[in-house]
């Protein structure tokens, strides 16, 4: 696949739009800046179009907070990142692994950027809304149609409600959807090249190494779009399925609704789950991540129950059950044998 690049025409509007997006991300965006941006957007239709292109570029090309922080620390112009291909960005990210984890106080996260973009677009007539949670806990949103979305830690969605369809995109993390019945408007959750179709039901969608869908009420259809065909499977209450990076569905499996959706109440419960899956879940609720010194440890089976705020209990349990040791720094906790 060819690298996505900043538009080669480099029009003045495109350059100004990217500068605005970088300013939004910088953590130095004041109320006066908001007014100036809205005024700039209103000057010409091409400004709005350029700004939308720049915002999509920022999200689609994998420009993360950490990469921006790294570039600034190395004296590189942030706008240069947008012109790099994925391999150049990957090499730069690798060179930054030794840098302090996280961002300076007050810096915007990419989720905060999404929320601001949602506010700006709504102010200019587009019917797109963004919702996000941080690492401190879950977040719940009631949509205008009456549906309820519960976001896990560090998760985000975009929502567009029209007369024909209710379209939601899971941008990051995990979310549970309690869908209000409306037979005239299907409720469609998209994540990467997967879509979940429902009318009135309740289900979870989780984005990690594989995409996982779990249904706790009603029936959903899951459609996967691959390079040469579409695949379809249906799930009933108490069933779940995963879709892996190779474009394959797992077998439909039963799951314990009462236990395995407890994260909505602030508790994580696992039954013989691989350690890498456990850490992916708990790290959404942590500022300092728990990592593995050896990727092979990720296959270790874990059976555990703990509050989302009690990662220390998990670490102590792993020391007993799997003889794992934890080495700590300000940037990370590393588990090893």
TrEMBL record:
Gene3D superfamilies for this protein: 2.60.120.1440, 3.55.50.30
Annotated transmembrane regions: 101-121
Protein name: FecR domain-containing protein
Organism: Bowmanella denitrificans
InterPro entries with a match to the protein in the record: FecR, FecR_N, Ferrdict_sens_TM
Keywords per UniProt: Membrane, Transmembrane, Transmembrane helix
Domain of life assignment: Bacteria
Domain named FecR protein: residues: 139-220
Lineage of source species: Bacteria, Pseudomonadati, Pseudomonadota, Gammaproteobacteria, Alteromonadales
Occurrences of domain FecR N-terminal (ranges): 16-57
């Amino acid at each position: 696949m060819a690298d996505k690049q900043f538009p080669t025409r480099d029009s003045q509007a495109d350059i100004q739009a990217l500068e605005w997006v970088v300013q939004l991300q910088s953590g130095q965006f004041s109320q006066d800046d908001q007014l100036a941006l809205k005024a700039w957007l209103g000057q010409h239709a091409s400004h709005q179009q350029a700004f939308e292109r720049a915002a999509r570029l920022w999200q689609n090309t994998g420009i993360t907070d950490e990469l921006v922080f790294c570039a600034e620390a190395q004296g590189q112009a942030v706008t240069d990142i947008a012109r790099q291909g994925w391999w150049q960005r990957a090499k730069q990210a690798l060179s930054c692994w030794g840098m302090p984890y996280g961002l300076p106080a007050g810096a915007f996260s990419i989720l905060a950027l999404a929320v601001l973009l949602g506010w700006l677009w709504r102010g200019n007539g587009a019917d797109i809304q963004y919702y996000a949670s941080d690492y401190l806990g879950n977040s719940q949103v009631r949509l205008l149609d009456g549906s309820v979305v519960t976001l896990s830690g560090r998760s985000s969605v975009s929502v567009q409600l029209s007369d024909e369809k209710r379209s939601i995109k899971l941008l990051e993390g995990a979310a549970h959807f309690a869908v209000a019945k409306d037979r005239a408007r299907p409720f469609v959750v998209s994540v990467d090249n997967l879509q979940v179709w429902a009318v009135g039901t309740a289900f979870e969608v989780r984005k990690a190494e594989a995409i996982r869908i779990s249904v706790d009420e009603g029936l959903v259809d899951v459609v996967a779009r691959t390079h040469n065909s579409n695949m379809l499977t249906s799930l009933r209450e108490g069933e779940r399925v995963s879709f892996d990076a190779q474009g394959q569905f797992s077998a439909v499996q039963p799951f314990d609704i009462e236990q395995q959706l407890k994260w909505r109440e602030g508790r994580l419960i696992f039954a013989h789950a691989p350690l890498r899956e456990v850490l992916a879940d708990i790290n959404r609720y942590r500022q300092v991540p728990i990592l593995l010194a050896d990727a092979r440890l990720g296959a270790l089976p874990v059976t555990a129950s703990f509050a989302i705020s009690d990662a220390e209990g998990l670490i102590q349990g792993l020391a007993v059950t799997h003889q794992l040791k934890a080495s700590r720094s300000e940037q990370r906790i590393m588990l090893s044998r």
